[in-house]
Amino acid sequence: AGIDQVYLAAAKVGGIVANNTYPADFIYENMMIESNIIHAAHLHNVNKLLFLGSSCIYPKLARQPMAESELLQGTLEPTNEPYAIAKIAGIKLCESYNRQYGRDYRSVMPTNLYGPHDNFHPDNSHVIPALLRRFHEAAQSHAPEVVVWGSGTPMREFLHVDDMAAASIHVMELSREVWQENTAPMLSHINVGTGVDCTISELAQTIAKVVGYQGRVVFDAAKPDGTPRKLLDVTRLHQLGWYHEISLEAGLAGTYQWFLENQQRFRG
């Protein structure tokens, strides 16, 4: 039997520094990945495909929480515009193959993901693995304080990678009728998140608790904060019958356990 479904999760990803330094790599590699795989799926008569995008497709000043309809309603965040444009192109590739060829190619846009097998490198990891590692090292060395960049007030949403996998399968397995009733041919992507956010300060305190760090948590307000709030509106996903299951604290505890058990093996 041939392949009848493709989950397209491959991408070139990175933080602000990488996106600023290698914008050509980010737009070119991501557009090639999507174009090659989506077109190849079509050529080989694979009728079902799920494309994983990113919440950075939304305008810099999008209304919060960000509904799917915010797409292309304003200017993107300049630092990751090439990456965001590539991810928007991926959505539009799926929609265009559906419209021209009758394919069933769907798109999901995850919020910030975390969990086992993450990148824990001190220089280029995302906020959860970065803080887990720093609080772990502070606890080991009995450091009196941990300094966290920024004021601690920005709000962010986090989804465990296992929940993301479950949501992806849920969306892929929906009947075509249900999927079409809840989307539009040219606005077909589905946000995937918890619909709940927390401040960076709350996140840091929760991580300190999970790691067992007893010292002070200090915020360096001289450092940049980024966007004040980035929360996905997951009404469409909830209407389709999927809700997240892993709480932030439980997910962080499991991720920390994995980190402890894989000291020589984690990325970074």
UniProtKB/TrEMBL annotation:
GO molecular function annotations of the record: GDP-L-fucose synthase activity; isomerase activity
InterPro entries: Epimerase_deHydtase (IPR001509), GDP_fucose/colitose_synth (IPR028614), NAD(P)-bd_dom_sf (IPR036291)
Keywords from the UniProt entry: Isomerase, NADP, Oxidoreductase
Keyword Isomerase: yes
NAD-dependent epimerase/dehydratase domain location: 2-179
Superkingdom in the source lineage: Bacteria
Record bears the keyword Oxidoreductase: yes
Family of the protein in this entry: Belongs to the NAD(P)-dependent epimerase/dehydratase family. Fucose synthase subfamily.
UniProt name for this protein: GDP-L-fucose synthase
